[in-house]
Specification:
single chain; 278 residues; alpha/beta; Rossmann fold; eight-stranded mixed beta sheet; two-stranded antiparallel ribbon; 35% helix
């Protein structure tokens, strides 16, 4: 049998697909999604919040706001993952818990999903959310000069695209996708339908911020080589610009368990985020 042709680097099509098949790295995603929902419901019951606030005219252009107790607080904008095609902000309210108890504010945002929405449209929606938050920072008791962005998986890519905006002071992506060319060449493009131009247009690695800011990127130590390479390459690119950049790879964590580090106030990821914000 002839060897498979290489489609990206040293990867054949089947191997590249495996590298970007996040769900395929665990027996089932359901226990993780259930934990996301349970932890988030617990935090919503405890924290002051405004839910399903419209930041735009689209059906999914909504955000959940968790205000700080006192004015002038930092605001963390968290963007959910799901390969741009599934999940919802309600799964990630738990991110707001440690931030609120430290005196900060959080906005967890939704965005239109693929394949109905192209990635260009999804990115524009997150930019619209940022603009809305800048105008309405008082509703979160937040200082518009202290905005930070982060997200998980596809949300890491979206946070990376926000980094080009001068209103963002730092970003904290978890298992993010920053170079979309290999993603385009993988099975993910069955629903993303990227071409080389749109992949480049929406690759944070090709749109690094012009102003100095902090990056803390993380990926689970048990994730695929490509997911870990994405974060490592992004950190290296920031470092070459002289920007402060840190890579965290929590040992033993897969693509889904790593974001649950934010449900533990003493975890390395949570503590690193709090140091960035405060």
């Amino acid at each position: 049998m002839a060897a498979e042709a290489l489609v990206y680097g040293t990867y054949s099509q089947s191997e590249l697909n495996r590298q970007y098949d996040a769900a395929g790295t665990v027996p089932s995603v359901d226990p993780y999604f259930e934990r996301f929902a349970t932890e988030s419901a617990r935090e919503r019951a405890k924290l002051e919040n405004e839910l399903d606030v419209a930041y735009g005219s689209g059906e999914r252009e909504r955000l959940d706001l968790f205000p700080a107790t006192d004015s002038g607080a930092p605001l963390f904008i968290f963007i959910h993952g799901g390969y741009w095609r599934r999940l919802d902000k309600s799964f990630f309210s738990f991110v707001a818990g440690p931030i609120a108890r430290a005196g900060g504010a959080t906005a967890v945002i939704n965005y239109p999903l693929a394949p109905e929405a192209a990635l260009d449209q999804i990115v524009r929606s997150t930019q619209t959310a940022l603009a809305w938050l800048a105008k309405n920072a008082h509703r979160a008791n937040a200082d518009p000069r202290r905005f930070f962005a982060g997200g998980h998986s596809a949300g890491g890519q979206l946070a990376g695209m926000l980094a080009a905006d001068e209103r963002i002071r730092g970003i904290f992506p978890i298992s993010g996708l920053f170079d979309l060319e290999p993603v385009r060449l993988s099975h993910v493009n069955e629903w993303m339908t990227l071409d080389s131009a749109s992949a480049a247009r929406n690759s944070p690695l090709l749109h690094l911020p012009a102003h100095k800011m902090q990056l803390i990127a993380s990926a689970g130590g048990a994730e695929t080589d490509e997911f870990r390479r994405q974060s490592r390459s992004y950190v290296e690119a920031w470092s070459k610009l002289g920007y402060p950049a840190t890579l965290l790879e929590p040992a033993g964590h897969n693509h889904f368990s790593v974001v649950l580090e934010f449900a533990d106030e003493e975890s390395d990821l949570t503590q690193a985020l709090l140091r960035m914000l405060f």
